[in-house]
Structures are given as structure tokens and as C-alpha cells.
Amino acid sequence: MALTQAAVLRNERRTVRRIFVMTLVTRTPVSRNTERFTFTAPEFANFEPLAADEFFALVIPRPGRDLPSLPSTDADIRTTIQSLPDDVRPDVRWYTVRAHRPAQQQIDVDIVLHGDSGPASRWATHARPGDRVGFRESSAPYLAPEQGHVLLVADETALPALAAILETQAPAGPTTVLAEVPGPADIPAIATDATIHWFHRGDTDPGSALLPALPELVTPHLDSLGYAWLCGERAIATEARRWLVAQGVDPELIMFSGYWRLGHARP
């Protein structure tokens, strides 16, 4: 992940990052392979997201095991996890806070399900109300500019963050939004007035449908571009950034993050 310097400075204000237990309340379908998981914890009453695309570490217990005891705060969640015995050491994956309701002490998290191919999907596939997982505060990359054209690019894994941006922290000025998904059934409902250019890649590699459209849809706005947010599979994020820089866009105006990498499991 590469943040703009302004976003780095803002995120550094969160000097303490809490870890606490949250309980699954409900799960509801969002699209073909995505479900919305609603969690509750008393700490959500005073949780303060830094931006619309706030993400967190989901701490997942081993199959058949309870969540082990964790410290209330830490500086590095992976170091904290690695210090635990192998037989109880939980897994960690990163997700976006899709919605936050402090009065109800709840958050929503949209999770793409792909069977038992990874610890998060495995847990989510079999999770039931009452199940407990860990929540560890992290940060938020998005930094809404005060002026200039905004470019937002996402794949299906970045749709929760994209939707949260468009619904709660939409850019004040003109915006171009590009999103790639496997097919029409993977498009969720997003409450926004913005025009989203949807690309369906089918069974082809990530980026194969979206990236070729950059010259046509983005070139007209390059001179006024004030900020670009590029998130999803690594090739989409890095290739979109590479194209923008080649067109003369200042790298400081670009936030890009590879949420996942085709053919590689996250450590």
C-alpha cells in the first residue's frame, strides 16, 4: 500500500490501536459471492473511523478453537499473533468497515466468499450468529481532495471501501469511477449519484476488462486530476498507477493498494 503523505500524517494521529472481541449478529447476502456480516462490541460505541475506507485486522480463531486471549492494544498485530503458541495462533486478514453504527454498537463487514480456500473465507462460510472474532484497529487510506477531479478504481474485493466512500465521503467535485467484477451478479447496491463504469471480466485475469478502458475514460480528466484511489487485485492497482504516472500524474496524488494477488495466498 502506498499512501499520500497527507494520509500518512492523519493516520499517525491514532497513536493507540485497540484490539477487542466482537460477536457476529447477522449475515445477509449482498451479491452472488458476497455477504454482509454485522458484528457488535461495546467498543464500537466510541470507535472513530479515520475515513470512509477504514480497514481493520480481522483476527480469526483456529477451526474448532476459541479466540485466544489478546492484549488490549498493540503496535504490530502480526508480531502479537506470532508470539502465541502454534496450536492457538489465530489468522489475520484485512477488511473494510462497510458501515458503522455507534448508537447500536455495530459495524458491517462485506466478505467475498470463495469456499475454504483461505482462513477468512473458511470462517465466514461456516460462521453463525454468536461466533466471536477479534477486531484490531488499523487506518484508512482515502483522503478526499478539496479540489480537482477524482479517480476511483476498484475490483470486487475493494467494492466495500468504494461503496463506503461514495455513500459517506463522496468527493465534492467531478469524479470518475471504474469497477471490475466477474459478472453482473457480482454488482452490489450502492447508494450514490455517481456514475459507475462497470466492467465484467468473466473468467479472464483481473484488470483485463478495466485497464484497457483507462485511456478513453480518464485521459480527458488528466489535466484536472487532483487525486486517484486505486484498490483491488495487485495488477489492477499497480498497472493503473503505472499508466497514470506515465501520463504525467504526480505520484503524490495517487493512493494505490493491492488487496490480493492472483495465484498467491496472503501470508
UniProtKB/TrEMBL annotation:
CDD domains: siderophore_interacting
GO molecular function: oxidoreductase activity
Pfam families: FAD_binding_9, SIP
InterPro entries reported for this sequence: FAD-bd_FR_type, FNR_nucleotide-bd, Riboflavin_synthase-like_b-brl, SIP_FAD-bd, SIP_fam, SIP_rossman_dom
Source taxon at top rank: Bacteria
UniProt domain FAD-binding FR-type: residue ranges: 17-148
Ranges in a coiled coil: none
PROSITE patterns xrefs: FAD_FR (PS51384)
Name the record gives this protein: Siderophore-interacting protein
Organism of provenance: Candidatus Avipropionibacterium avicola
